[in-house]
Amino acid sequence: METKGRGVVESLYDALSRGDAAAAEAAMAEDVEWWFHGPRRCQYMRRVLTGEADERGGFRFRPRRVTAVGGPWVVAEGWEGKHAYWVHAWAVEHGVITLFREYFNTSLTVISHGQLRGGGATSSTSAVGRMGAGGGALWQSEAPAREGRRSLPGLLLAI
């Protein structure tokens, strides 16, 4: 299932780069649940998926890394220069994307929901710290670690 989910996500990015709206639409459920974190002006993928913007004429999504992280979840990240870093978390069920989380200029750490202890909200720094150095994260942003990169806010996604 994880390999198939990754393939669905990769085919979506490929369809968007070709401007193939029919193929992009086929990769997604009719009622995709969407959530965004970042500056409102940076909701580029939402604009592309709703037809407000043409991916070929505006912001281009070129994933640098696409990873199946467990269950239905696939995470993709990319960046263009110093000021445009994005992470997309996609849930793929029954061969179509059903849920989408978009993060712009935000560092993301993905963990299994079972790794959270004590309940309540937590910051990614404290949660990752409790897991130990690199211990247990299913996926972690790479771009913020690049040399010369400015500091980014960090979030934790428990799946």
From TrEMBL:
This is Wound-induced protein 1. PANTHER family: OS05G0342100 PROTEIN, OS07G0691300 PROTEIN. InterPro entries: Wun1-like. It comes from the Eukaryota.
